[in-house]
Amino acid sequence: MSGSVTTPAAPKGPAPRPIILDCDPGHDDALAMLLALVRPEVRLLAVTTVGGNADLRRTTRNALAVLTLAGRTDVPVAMGAPGPLVRPLRVADWVHGESGLDGADLPEPAAAPVSEGAVALMARLIGESPTPVTLVPTGPLTNVALLLRAHPELRPRIARICLMGGSMGEGNATASAEFNIWVDPEAAAEVFDCGLPVAMMGLDVTHQARVTVAESDAWATLGTRTGRVFADLFRFFARFHRDRYGWDGSPIHDAVAVAHVLDLGLVCTEPYRVDVETTSELTRGRTVVDIRGLLGRPPNVDVGVSIDRERFLGLVRDALAAFP
Q: Packing angle between helix 309-321 and helix 225-245, nearest 10 degrees?
């Protein structure tokens, strides 16, 4: 059942830009969904799901549950690729739990996925949109690669691709690679070199976008069920980051990609050449960022390097407060 949500007053200026969120919820994907739903700068056309943090059945159920919690089951959800282009799926249950969204009691989904698959739905919405659509992938890039393969005629109708994934430095799935890229490096290589405008919100910037346990606990005091649920979710999410990094809290990786699309100057980027390692198992999925231009190849990706943490967390808190 759909409900009403209070959104911030729309600023004077351009109409909201249409976006499609392609995700694998995931604690941080869930917050990215809320931010995309509530911000007046964007209009969320659909949510598409992919196997990543959990298997496709679970990530799809999680997306539907979050939309149910938010009272926004009017947003269509389509199931995408169950696994990578050429490799078996490896899920991140050591981070997100078996369900992909452990730590809180989420409502039973009040809607089902649409009959169209993710690629078909994305293609239709892009083709129907009066203005070019921005793709915001926050999981493995399998669905986006399949879309670009199947519908090259739609490339002029895609404004840009703003993804969460990659890293200029250390990885989190391995010493070399960030999880989303590591899961399906072949898909990532195709997307990074597709010729469209691509922005990469990697670990270098998302690790700056950390919410402390005290800050996420304060979400429970917003007086909303959504705030309480997300406080519980992020208590669970913080355990991994405490054990792995010794941090008091956790990054909100995927919401950074949505925040960048808002064009509010929250994220600073630099244009670099980025290539994805697909051959070596030692460095599989590493995003090789040519910071010094040593290869002599033109930049193909705008890479996030810094974020205004306080403004970003303010946006997240406001988004949580807007829902029931």
A: 140
Residue 217 lies in a domain: yes
Residue 10 placed within a domain = no
Domain that holds residue 297: 17-321
Catalytic residue from among 207, 241, 253, 260: 253
For the stretch 289-322, pLDDT in tens is 999 999 999 999 999 999 999 999 999 999 999 9
- Residue 8 lies inside a defined structural domain of this protein: no
- How many separate domains does the chain show? 1
Q: Is 207 a catalytic residue?
A: no
Is 27 within a domain?
A: yes
Which CATH number goes with the domain that contains 35?
3.90.245.10
Tens of pLDDT, residue by residue over 53-103, are 999 999 999 999 999 999 999 999 999 999 999 999 999 998 999 999 999
The three state secondary structure string of the chain is CCCCCCCCCCCCCCCCEEEEEEECCCHHHHHHHHHHHHCCCEEEEEEEECCCCCCHHHHHHHHHHHHHHHCCCCCCEEECCCCCCCCCCCCCHHHHCCCCCCCCCCCCCCCCCCCCCHHHHHHHHHHHCCCCEEEEECCCCHHHHHHHHHCHHHHHHEEEEEEECCCCCCCCCCCCCCHHHHHCHHHHHHHHCCCCCEEEECHHHHCCCEECHHHHHHHHHHCCHHHHHHHHHHHHHHHHHHHHHCCCCEECHHHHHHHHHCCCCCEEEEEEEEEECCCCCCCCCCEEEECCCCCCCCCCEEEEEEECHHHHHHHHHHHHHCCC
Contact call for residues 190 and 90 (beta carbons, < 8 A): no
